[in-house]
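Milestone M4 deliverable, item 7.
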Amino acid sequence: MPLGYKGSYQRVHAYLQNKRASPRLVTARPPSPRAVAGWILRHPETLTESEQLQLKAVRSHCPELDALTRHVRSFAVMLTSRQGERLPDWLDAVRQDDLPSLHTLAAGIDRDRDAVIAGLTLPWNSGVVEGHVNRIKMLKRQMFGRAGFHLLRKRVLLAWRTDGLTPYAV
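Output delivered:
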């Protein structure tokens, strides 16, 4: 018994005719959400021409992403040029758009508005203190949480001596 299709020629013709009548358009694959987020968060001048064109196309197709991009970039300008006095206007602009995630951010900023404005305006930062806290936490993790206060204090002070910082009496 020979193997093969046992139906009629007309069925095959109808099946293929249906496929030919509705050709699929070949379209470019849309960019991933991670790629779009990267384009929005990066400085516009660092994007390649291709990335700029793709971001422009995405923004033109999605008004929410366009509004998000505008808010993110205006916040970045405020942050890099230390213009904290513009924060209230930025928060009002964010609240006018229908972007729930940014509304959550705005509510969080409002809880401590004065500190955020100071952080966006003043030239001082707590980077050195945060570095010391990070180092102390690392030392504590190395001891698997079993060391008491006195041993942790001794390790912190000895680590400071080896880092070339001000020596303290141990």
